Amino acid sequence: MPKMKTKSSAKKRFRVRPGGTVKRGQAFKRHILTKKTTKNKRQLRGAVNVHEADLGQIAQMLPKCGL
Q: Are 67 and 20 in contact (CB under 8 A)?
């Protein structure tokens, strides 16, 4: 049986925290920032947790992480 491969796009976008939660970066912060308000850009800072409804798909993309 061949090894399960990790999706390269997923390993660049998600990190599994020790407690089993998965963190991701915020979207809408890359370009066209001039029309976005300062408050909006400030609230897009930092990382957030992936919603628990999406954890099954992430577990399939990251088989070695033990989700």
A: yes
For residues 6 and 43, what is the distance between their CA atoms, to the nearest angstrom?
Answer: 31
CA distance 43 to 15: 20
Beta-bridge mates of residue 14 = 24
The b-or-e profile of 3-17 (16+ CB within 10 A means b, else e) is eeeeeeeeeeebebe
Partnered with residue 22 across adjacent β-strands are 16
Q: For 15-58, what is each residue's pLDDT tens digit?
A: 999 999 999 999 999 999 999 999 999 999 999 999 999 999 99
Domains defined along the chain, listed by start: 8-65 (4.10.410.60)
pTM, full prediction: 0.83
